[in-house]
Specification:
globular, 456 residues, 15 helices, mainly alpha
Length: 456
């Protein structure tokens, strides 16, 4: 079945514009998520190796095993969301009831009980397992809300862009405040400093998710879907737009995971100035907030696919320059990464709206609307990317002979530099190549909506 593109009037479509109150309220959810996500991405590997005292090889295995389990859990959760019936809707109840686990697990993950080596490893596995599931318990329903709040093609781009602005604001807060808070709250004790810093971020994150619950509404009300494994297979693996945007996100998030994990090692050991970590994270986070501002405009002028390619190409070029331009040029690393941060957020912001559009594509193409499963599969791909990215980063440290708080070998330093620059550039390039196969334009989407309306 191919989409026959016809002229579609706006009166034929149910245009669902949202108020700025609701858009901002929705953005609070990703601000909350990123207070935890950015702590994990930017600091957890360093926390495990240099604060808690776990070897990088063990950390590599930990990241891989736990993220693969998270990915499987996400699919189960997605099916559960689709079958949920409540007065709050399908997705919003999870924001209300899942938040306490989200708060507690974040605090436990950055706590350091006095245990022997085996006890530390077991504790790290248990707490990271729980954190991954608690994060999914609120984040997947939160992501599903995009498709349930509106079916307007461009409104989804605006909503996703607002979401990304708040997500990057969360990254800015974590980047600018983490190390100063660790020093201040720890008062000479890094373990105490990390724990109390996470207490603050987790509690604030819990409040923000509650505000997101209060300010959003599920107005796309459809009957509870009944589907089997065959329907899920078709909705995912025969959904070409979904596969395209998922692969693109997988490569992009892999690039981000590897680079963010490498930053603190890069400045501490390669550059020899750990004090640059906070300004680097802060400036890149400020830059990342800028990209989503342009995403709705570029999406409308160029189309979602072309705007995503545009942002991805510039981001990949900037990351490549940071590798070939000079091995220890701090200024160049700052400038190129600021540019990459701005433009990488354009396909990221647009991508969330694209994922929402693939829900209607599945309904149009295959007659089922398993939005919870589709978003869970989208999360699955991202969790796999994070697992691979985090594992690759830890494995590079392990195989190149990294030793915490010691003079590193030339091989280790080159491995850290590779993680910081060239590897993210290659993965970003693969990301924009993947999005080239996304074929769901606004005209095609509007025609699908008219056909779905006539069927119903």
């Amino acid at each position: 079945m191919e989409i026959q593109v016809k002229e579609v009037s706006k009166t034929q479509l149910a245009v669902q514009k949202l108020s700025w109150f609701e858009r901002i309220g929705y953005g609070f959810g990703d601000l909350s998520s990123n207070l935890i996500f950015q702590m994990i991405s930017n600091f957890l590997m360093f926390f495990y190796t240099d604060v808690y005292g776990i070897g990088p090889g063990i950390v590599a295995t930990l990241f891989f095993v736990t993220k693969i389990w998270d990915a499987v859990f996400d699919l189960v959760l997605g099916a559960l969301i689709d079958k949920t019936k409540s007065r709050f809707g399908k997705a919003r109840p999870y924001l209300l009831y899942g938040t306490p686990a989200f708060i507690i697990s974040g605090i436990l993950c950055f706590s350091t009980p006095d245990l022997n080596e085996t006890g530390k490893i077991v504790y790290a596995y248990i707490t990271y397992f729980i954190l991954g599931m608690a994060y999914s318990l609120v984040n997947i329903p939160y992501s599903t809300l995009t498709a349930r709040m509106t079916q307007d093609f461009q409104e989804r781009s605006v909503l996703s862009s607002v979401r990304m602005m708040f997500a990057m604001l969360g990254g800015l807060i974590v980047s600018a405040l983490t190390m100063p808070l660790v020093d201040w709250l720890g008062a000479g004790s890094p373990t105490k400093g990390w724990q109390w810093t996470m207490v603050i971020f987790s509690l604030v994150g819990g409040i923000l998710y509650f505000l997101c619950f209060l300010s959003t509404k599920e107005r796309v009300v459809l009957k509870t879907e009944k589907y089997g494994l065959k329907d899920i297979f078709r909705a995912i693996f025969k959904n070409k737009p979904f596969l395209s945007v998922s692969l693109s996100f997988m490569f992009a998030l892999g690039a981000l995971s590897i680079q963010m994990a490498a930053v603190i090692y890069y400045f501490k050991y390669y550059i020899g100035n750990e004090d640059l970590v906070t300004p680097f994270f802060t400036l890149c986070s400020v830059a990342a907030i800028i990209g989503p501002f342009f995403a709705p405009y570029l999406s409308k002028k160029m189309g979602k696919r072309n705007a995503s390619i545009f942002g991805g190409v510039i981001s990949a070029i900037a990351s490549g320059i940071s590798y070939f331009g000079g091995p220890s040029s701090v200024e160049l690393v700052f400038i190129t990464n600021i540019i990459a941060s701005i433009f990488s957020m354009i396909p990221t912001a647009i991508g969330w709206g694209m994922c929402a559009d693939t829900v209607e594509y599945a309904e149009w193409k295959h007659g089922v609307r398993p939005e919870g499963v589709i978003y869970a599969a989208f999360s699955f791909v991202q969790k796999v990317a994070m697992a691979i990215g985090s594992t690759v980063g830890a494995a590079i440290l392990a195989t190149t002979g990294y030793v915490a708080d010691a003079q590193q070998s030339e091989q280790t330093l080159e491995g850290i530099r590779y993680m910081m620059t060239l590897l993210p550039a290659i993965l970003t390039m693969l990301s924009f190549i993947a999005i080239m196969f996304y074929n769901l334009s606004e005209e095609k989407y509007n025609q699908m909506m008219v056909e779905l309306k006539s069927r119903n």
